[in-house]
Amino acid sequence: MATFHPVSGSSTELATVTTERWYMAPGVRRIEIRQNGVVGTLFLPPGPGPVPAILDLWGMGGGLVEYRSALFASKGYASLSLAYLGHKDLPAPQNRINVGDSYFKTAFHLLQDHPHVCADRVGIIGLSFGVYLTLRLATQSDVNPSCLICINGPVGSTVRLSDAEGRSEQFERDHSVGRSSRIPRCCSGRRLEEDPGIPGN
Predict the structure, then answer these.
(1) Residue partners of 19: CB distance under 8 A and separation at least 6
(2) What pLDDT is recorded for position 179?
(3) Within a domain: 11
């Protein structure tokens, strides 16, 4: 917190505070998953279970993002954070989705069949492109999630799928996975940065 002095143009610091956020509560177990081709990290809350569970799907940034699953487990949910793009333990090359529908179904069933999990209370959460995958997975005949949580997702996929399994063509990218997919496109399909009608271009 600070005060501003309009005459001198300077400010004086009145107080500071440092906060820390704990993503993983005491007693939460973190288990690396490399099973049946599935690459992810499972977080289990303390206690005997069974507990409800969440399959955690992130977006095109790639890799394996764990903190949201750790937070779920800290609140009493089992959660499997799933890698599907840009991870060293997935099939190469890392700049394309080389896993298909069967990969996501296997991950869902792996979580559902875990002895610590209540099998009829397994949901899926997706962010960005993970929303597309969440909705795609929920339409599979042998997948019956108890809930879907969709955050800031597309209404469809702009990534060309090269086969019925859902594998993708190679992404346009620079040196970072998913970089070009984060650039918004206008109605014409051009990137906003390329559209002369957008102010500032």
Answers:
(1) none
(2) 37
(3) no
